[in-house]
Design brief:
The protein is mainly beta and 425 residues long. It has one domain: Beta Barrel (Porin). The protein contains three helices and 19 strands. It has an 18-stranded antiparallel beta barrel. The longest helix has 16 residues, at 2-17. The protein is globular and about 70 Å long. The protein starts with a helix and ends with a strand.
């Protein structure tokens, strides 16, 4: 007790001598998202089995605070929680981020501008990492169904001229065990160049290392776009080289493009696009040609396609025509797009200023198929969004895949429907 009496005056004296920091410019907010889901056959395409038939609630809650500090420094912290209904019933077995009632740190970063008097900005901590259309960089934690997109690391942004930025990146996707002897980390590093003139002109070189798989993938690519009257277009392509594992090299390619043609002033538009991701050729021993998804998983191609390409091991029927579909993933639950040719076309309608409706049809086939056919199936996706107020959005999504012969003769359609209320404050 005597020691406590001595310490208290000392602490008060130290506190009195610490200079007060200038008041911060604080901003706080958050969002609440409620979804009702029905999913069926997204993995086994078999209506007689119910393991992948879900009728569930899905809740996401986030609170954030941001501060503008002395000399332009910024800080941002976001806490999040996601659960499928009363997930705490399994708390002892899987008390994990995004899977139960656990509240976790979803973002926490510090940003320092004008380092050393240069046009250099440093951001360090846990942050969302998203570039372009999300073809290679969108989702840092795809195993959590895009609820979280963060990576832990550092981003240094050099802005030598107006509209020109060069981002140098180094992030941990998975730290796993902290010691080097475990050899189980997943790391992303590289550079992303953006030339901003109103239309996308971007180039990147990325290196992703998965120690658990002895996998090192270099991805180099570019993204461009333009507009002419009511027509806008975007295109992106990339090549991959490296080591698929300890025994095979990797040589892969990927490309995506989309067009939008405005029809009238009300917002009606015709849509079309294409995504192609190379698959492995079994005839080339020692070389893997399968596209590595990097961090371009959820949900760029639509919500149901992401569920269809989830890494659930041999339980995913994709393994029937593509046995190595998840070779590049060491995390169950990740989206592992690859070996896919997917043209699509659709229409967007705006019957009123606060409602957007979209319908699009896709034809899916495998670039390389181990089955007698490469036809994965035909996919219809529908979405409607209603901006109920400045803070509230209502949404409905429905999708159905009619399986092709690659799944076999007895495959049943895969279906997803969800409705959503999203409130931001």
């Amino acid at each position: 007790m005597a020691r406590v009496r001595l310490l208290l005056p000392l602490l008060l004296l130290i506190a009195a001598r610490v200079p007060a920091a200038p008041p911060a410019d604080w901003t706080v907010g958050g969002d609440v998202r409620v979804r009702g889901y029905h999913l069926e056959n997204m993995w086994d395409v078999d209506s007689t089995a119910d393991a992948d038939r879900w009728s569930v609630w899905r809740h996401r809650t986030r609170l954030w605070a941001a501060a503008e500090l002395d000399r332009g420094a910024q800080a941002y912290v976001r806490l999040a929680n996601q659960h499928f209904g009363e997930g705490v019933t399994d708390a002892g077995a899987w008390e994990e981020d995004n899977k139960s009632d656990k509240v976790f740190v979803d973002n926490a970063w510090v940003r320092l501008p004008d380092l050393l008097g240069l046009p250099l900005e440093l951001t360090a901590g846990r942050m969302d990492v998203r570039y372009g259309s999300g073809f290679v960089l969108f989702d840092g934690q795809s195993q959590t169904a895009s609820t979280s997109a963060y990576l832990d690391g550092v981003k240094a942004r050099l802005a030598p001229a107006t509209g020109v930025t060069l981002d140098l990146l180094h992030f941990k996707d998975q730290e796993n065990r902290r010691d080097d002897a475990s050899h189980d980390d997943v790391t992303l590093s590289g550079a992303y160049l953006t030339l901003g003139d109103g239309q996308p002109r971007e180039a990147y070189l990325l290196r992703r290392v998965n120690q658990a798989l002895d996998r090192e993938v270099w991805t180099g690519g570019a993204r461009v776009g333009g507009a002419a009257g009511r027509l806008t277009w975007r295109a992106e392509a990339a090549l991959q080289r490296g080591d698929a594992d300890a025994l095979r090299t990797l040589e892969a390619w990927g490309a995506t493009a989309d067009l939008r043609l405005g029809v009238d002033a009300a917002g009606t538009a015709l849509l079309a696009g294409f995504t192609g991701l190379s698959g492995d050729d079994p005839a080339t021993a020692g070389v893997d040609e399968r596209w590595d998804v990097v961090h371009g998983g959820w949900p760029r191609l639509g919500d149901l396609p992401a569920w269809l390409y989830l890494n659930v091991g041999p339980h995913n029927a994709v393994s029937g025509f593509d046995p190595g579909y998840a070779d590049g993933s060491s995390r169950p639950g990740e989206v592992v797009y690859g070996n896919l040719i997917m043209p699509w076309a659709g229409v967007e309608l705006r019957p009123r200023a606060d409602v957007t409706a979209r319908a699009w049809w896709s034809s899916l086939r495998a670039h390389r198929s181990a089955a007698a056919s490469d036809r994965i199936g035909e996919l219809l996706q529908l979405s409607v969004k209603h901006r109920w107020s400045a803070d509230v959005t209502l949404a409905l999504y429905a999708a159905r895949l009619w399986p092709g012969d690659a799944y076999g003769p007895d495959a049943d359609p895969a279906t997803e429907v969800f409705w959503e209320i999203n409130l931001a404050f």
